[in-house]
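JOB MANIFEST
job_type = single_chain_structure
chain_count = 1
residues = 267
[input]
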Amino acid sequence: MSRDPAPGARGPEAGSEPRPGTERPPMSAVLFDLDGTLVDSEPAYWASDRAFLAGWGIEYGEELNASMVGRGSAEFLGDLERLFPASPLHALPLDERARRKDEAYLAYARTRVKPFPGVIAFARTLAARGLPLAVASGSTPLVIDRTLETTGLAELFPVRVSASEVPRGKPEPDVFLEAARRLGVEPALCLVVEDSRLGVAGARAAGMRCVSLPPPGAESDIRYTADLVVAGGAAAFDPDVVLTAFAFSAPTRPSPNARPPVPPRGA
């Protein structure tokens, strides 16, 4: 029996909607990207990065910023070093560069970054049903923790994984696989919610299902192809659409592969 596609969403092919729960098991955990997915932070990141990097002789334009969305801090800074080798920024140790970048962002974003209401409503509904949730982000542990605290979301996401805690950032699957391991849920039973093409690729590489949130106008970009594509991105996220599109069932017991969380670097 077929159904009409839900408004504002489509499946892997234009005009289609996935039929989870019929051919695949229900989702037992949900992993959320942070920036651009849970919180509207991408404009603040661009503004703070542009100002911070200008002080080091790096012109950080819109096109370059778009190519960096979803990159972990180490990959971001490594790309800048290759693109702007003459900048004195690269004389600093990597950890120091990351620290200064984070401090510039946090100072700028303190009163500017707000959660996306629809995505947060979805997360709260899942939590009330007993599904484990995690943040899997390219941001550093400091930025993840501070952002969740200042937006009032800390208690909703006790499990958080930064790309700096795993060998490779997005588009590799490491950050998602580590989040699943910490939750004690098999990767195939995890749903990822992502706004970046790198994150969508990472979810696919992890063997997880994915809801992608492309920026307005990018819905037809094949790099955002996922089990469900939300037209208009996180700002247009309708929790009822996603709750209808997928089946969810809280895990009855932890995966035998579950292990304690990996402590943050420097702990």
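[summary]
The CA atoms of residues 188 and 214 lie 23 Å apart.
The first helix runs from residue 42 to 54.
exit_status = 0
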